[in-house]
Automatic annotation (TrEMBL):
Organism: Trifolium subterraneum (Subterranean clover)
Its biological purpose: Methylates caffeoyl-CoA to feruloyl-CoA and 5-hydroxyferuloyl-CoA to sinapoyl-CoA. Plays a role in the synthesis of feruloylated polysaccharides. Involved in the reinforcement of the plant cell wall. Also involved in the responding to wounding or pathogen challenge by the increased formation of cell wall-bound ferulic acid polymers.
Entry's family note: Belongs to the class I-like SAM-binding methyltransferase superfamily. Cation-dependent O-methyltransferase family.
Keyword check for Methyltransferase: yes
Record-linked SUPFAM superfamilies: S-adenosyl-L-methionine-dependent methyltransferases (SSF53335)
GO annotation, biological process: methylation
Superkingdom as given in the UniProt entry: Eukaryota
InterPro entries: Cation-dep_OMT (IPR050362), SAM-dependent_MTases_sf (IPR029063), SAM_O-MeTrfase (IPR002935)
UniProt name for this protein: Caffeoyl-CoA O-methyltransferase
Length: 234
């Protein structure tokens, strides 16, 4: 019976639902316990409302590094964006880039209710040309304290090559989903969902590039689907 169960596990496709929180946590009960004891009790009411729509978690990193000028590439309904705006000081700003304003506007009433919409500069469009526009102005280079990327994984490397010049020395860049459902450590022929398989090589290539980039120090956080933090050092 044990052998049969092991065989079933080996043949099970890799997907976000299966492995999204098990890179570190090994049970749903433990994951729920952490949420109920440390996340939910102190969660801002507006974050809670938007979390129920997008199923993500708030971040405190902005406060830890005293960031004021930030950027987010990939907004969706704006949960992470709201978390950032709430953490920023009153004069803080977040430049939000996304190809679809419609999803952002779903969460916008909640962001407005939280009283932080004035901190957000939303720009609709493909991120790479928008980044090129920013880079054309020398005054934008090295001015961002924190940049968070949660967008198309096949362009992560292209994003990095541009945002590295926009973040200040000592500033941070965060990349979400860098473990890509655990597929980065799976054999190439392992069964996995199509969308995971299609982007797996891009994520692996990106991770290898970061590991060799002498301009940054990196920290891979094995929580959720993997978050890589990059601190620019030169």
């Amino acid at each position: 019976m044990a052998a049969n169960n092991e065989e079933k596990q080996q043949n099970k496709p890799i997907g976000l639902i299966d492995l999204s929180h098990k890179t570190l946590l090994q049970s749903d009960a433990l994951y729920q316990y952490i949420l109920e004891t440390s996340v939910f009790p102190r969660e801002h009411p507006c974050l809670k409302e938007l979390r129920e729509m997008t199923d993500k978690h708030p971040r405190m990193l902005i406060k830890l590094i005293n960031a004021k000028n930030t950027m987010e590439i990939g907004v969706y309904t704006g949960y992470s964006l709201l978390s950032t705006a709430l953490a920023l000081p009153s004069d803080g700003k977040v430049l939000a880039l996304d190809v679809n304003r419609q999803y952002y506007e779903l969460g916008l009433p909640i962001i407005e209710k939280a009283g932080v919409a004035h901190k957000i500069d939303f720009r609709e469009g493909t991120a790479l040309p928008l980044l090129d526009e920013l880079l054309q102005d020398e005054n934008n280079k090295g001015t961002f304290d924190f940049i968070f990327v949660d967008a198309d994984k096949n362009n992560y490397l292209n994003y990095h090559k541009k945002v590295i010049d926009l973040v200040k020395v000592g500033g941070l860049i965060g990349y979400d989903n860098t473990l890509w459902s655990g597929s980065v450590a799976a054999p190439p022929d392992a069964p996995m969902l199509d969308y995971v398989s299609e982007l797996r090589d891009h994520v692996i290539e990106f991770n290898k590039y970061l590991a060799q980039d002498s301009r940054i120090e990196i920290c891979q956080l094995p929580v959720g689907d993997g978050i890589t933090l990059c601190r620019r050092i030169n």
